[in-house]
Amino acid sequence: MKSAFLVSAIVGLVSAHASDLSSIPFKTITGKDTSLADYKGKVVLVVNTASKCGLTKQYEALEGLQKKYADKGFTVIAFPCNDFGKQEPGTAEEIQTFCKTTYSVSFPLMEKIHVKGPDRHPLYTALTGEGGAFPGEVKWNFGKFLIGKDGKALARFEPKQTPDSAEVTSAIEKALAP
Question: Burial of 60 by CB count in 10 Å (0-12 exposed, 13-18 middle, 19+ buried)?
Fold first, then answer.
């Protein structure tokens, strides 16, 4: 009985987060507590990233989006993830160094998390879990979720869909519109 109640409570919390993701805590790559509430009023592209993936070159397009739209109220937030082919084995320091030296990344990097499985981070449970904004497992590195100024999930883009594709940039521009 207790476990059924607990599961129901967790599903309720995740469902609540699916509509407003702002209160779900996570940490920056340097260990500072944060959440999407710190980005209130901004359009955010949440991306699970990896340094040793065939799609890693998407960092370049992500940085291009950051530079193009940052002054309009947009940011990319990267969540390094080692869930797919162990393609993000690095430490926080190694990930930061790689991103800065290889791609001149200026957008925020977060602590390495799990985006699938039993240890999936609550943000990704709210995005992809049963009752989430876009149910269905993240398929690989560089899955993208567009979050509106109000903290609600607006769109999901699969890993092979490049950040600079017409679909992604159009969705960002629509979300940034007054």
Answer: middle
Q: Enumerate the domain spans of the chain.
A: 2-176
Contact status, residue 145 vs residue 175, Cβ threshold 8 Å? no
**Structurally, what CATH architecture does the domain formed by 2-176 represent?**
3-Layer(aba) Sandwich (3.40)
Torsion sign across C-alpha atoms 38, 39, 41, 47? negative
User: Is the distance from CB of 115 to CB of 108 less than 8 angstroms?
Assistant: no
Is 53 catalytic? The answer is: yes
Residues 58 and 163: their CA atoms lie apart, in Å, by: 7
The two structure tokens encoding residue 42? 């901004």
**pLDDT at residue 5, rounded to an integer:** 36
Q: Is the pLDDT of residue 37 over 50?
A: yes
User: Of the residues 21, 29, 43, 53, which is catalytic?
Assistant: 53
Q: CB of 74 within 8 A of CB of 172? A: yes
CB 89 within 8 A of CB 121: no
Q: What's the predicted TM-score (pTM) here?
A: 0.89
8 A C-beta contact, residue 136 and residue 35: no
* pLDDT for residue 2 is more than 60: no
pLDDT number for residue 32: 98
**Cβ of 34: how many Cβ atoms within 10 Å?**
15
